[in-house]
Amino acid sequence: MNSTMNYPGLWFEDGDIVLSANPHVGDARRLFLVHKHTLSSYSPVFWNIFNEPSGVRAEDVDGIQAKNDVELLQVNDPASDLAELLQCLYYPTQMPFNFKEPTVNIDMGGLLRLCKKYDIADLAARVVNQLKFEWPTSLAIYEQHEARVRMLGLAHADAPGGQIDEKYLDDRFPEPASIVALAREFDIPELLPAAFYALSLISPRAKYDMYHSPIARQHPECAARLAMLTRSARWSLLAPADLLRLARGQDQLRSPTALTKMFEGRTRSADCSAGCDALLVALRRLAGDTHDILGALTYLRIYITEPDRAPKMKICRTCAAATCGVVATLRLRIWSSLPLWFGVPGVRWHQSNQNWPADQVR
Ligand SMILES: [Zn+2]
Fold first, then answer.
1. In 3D, which of 178, 173, 30 has the Cα closest to residue 110?
2. Cα(297) to centroid(ligand 1), Å
């Protein structure tokens, strides 16, 4: 089969080089008419290809062939990844990812692979920054992330069939096992603690590819689970050593004694009421039941500080303030322990209360 298809939006009539990239299986090759100058200005590898083609490795490209007036370069890259790369280079103000929402529509691993192959360092750094935002390296960024998950979770729980714009909650976030694989491939261990934590909240029975195949989504049981905000993962991508790290981290997260001890140390004051005692009982149950201990602590803080709920819970002011203090300390302690618990010690962890640099937020 020799059919080809011009890629819409990346076919510039004044271009001087056609890139021909690998299609999906059985599909036509995709062609991009672009500019040698643009590619060379970003990528020393493309510069070499155009200026010193004899030094280019044959396994990377098939060499340049002149066809009519425009030259053609066959590259062994997936067309979808190459399209993302060219979009980023040609439309830098419209990056297909930003710090406002998680990236689900593009394969960041595929993009990063091409950045490395063609030595496009600036874009690679932006992709890594985006990943570090989505898989937080500080508790402050993780708090923003939690708030977004909570908000979207509430919206999807209220929506008919759990869907908004034909998307389930699970469609709105990147899948964590592929992030572990990406972190391993590109040596970005800082992403691992947050990715492992996300995996620790997902049932091993919830398989991403099963939940997201078009046929499975029509199945009532699968649709019901997705509507109940079930999250899924590509479990088969995890290496045995990473599965073991995950299990060990989960074990640490589910030993609740350390958690309740801090609360149990408190003495009753004269102002204490029935709500103060009930709080401790609720907390013990929370520590024993939940998988998402960081999230549960945030919920606890929200419950006792929300003006609508706090008066009904009848917790004295002293206990409410003390509990909020303990929640903050515990969250920081748990967060700081994640690299150790998930077996990725020595990661360069941002200062725990550091926000994302303002100039990088777009
Ligand atoms: Zn009290």
1. 178
2. 18
Write the pLDDT tens digit of every residue in 124-176. Answer: 999 999 999 999 999 999 999 999 999 999 999 999 999 999 999 999 999 99
Gap from CA of 320 to ligand 1 centroid (Å): 7
Of 207, 213, 212, 229, the closest CA to residue 161 belongs to 229
Residue spans of the domains in the chain: they are 4-129, 135-253, 257-341
Q: Does domain 4-129 have CATH number 3.90.550.10?
A: no
Q: How many angstroms does the Cα of residue 21 sit away from the middle of ligand 1?
A: 67
Q: What separation in Å is there between the alpha carbon of 139 and the centre of ligand 1?
A: 28
Question: How far does residue 317's CA lie from ligand 1's centre (Å)?
Answer: 7
In this structure, are residues 177 and 234 in contact, taking their beta carbons and an 8 Å threshold?
yes
Q: Please state, in angstroms and as integers, the Cα–Cα distance from residue 107 to each residue in 133, 174, 232, following that order.
A: 16, 9, 17
Instruction: Give the distance (Å) from ligand 1 centre to CA of residue 143.
Output: 27
Residues 6+ apart with CB under 8 A from 300: 283, 286, 323, 327
